Amino acid sequence: QVQLVESGGGLVQAGGSLRLSCAASGSIFSINVMSWYRQAPGKQRELVALITSGGLTNYGDSVKGRFTISRDNAKNTVYLQMNSLKPEDTAVYYCKALVRSSSYWGQGTQVTVSS
What we know:
By secondary structure, this protein is an all-beta fold. Helices cover 0% and strands 58% of the residues.
């Protein structure tokens, strides 16, 4: 079992920045991939970024060059640094942990970008 708690969401103006955090607890040694997803009203949940246990990263096309995913193994925390935010980045952001074939999700944190 893995428990995930996201934080750092909020309201920001277009062009601004936010940093989301996802703190993991439980069987964290078995986590293969950590990722961030987002879901806007009326839209499907989409992948924002992921980072593997080996440190490899991948990003959704809409956030490449603006968002950065990183991890602090000592704190069992994954971060999503979001720069140059746009109104279309408004969504609930979810953290996900992949353990073998099982997925664990956090409760989500709201990010709202005003124009």
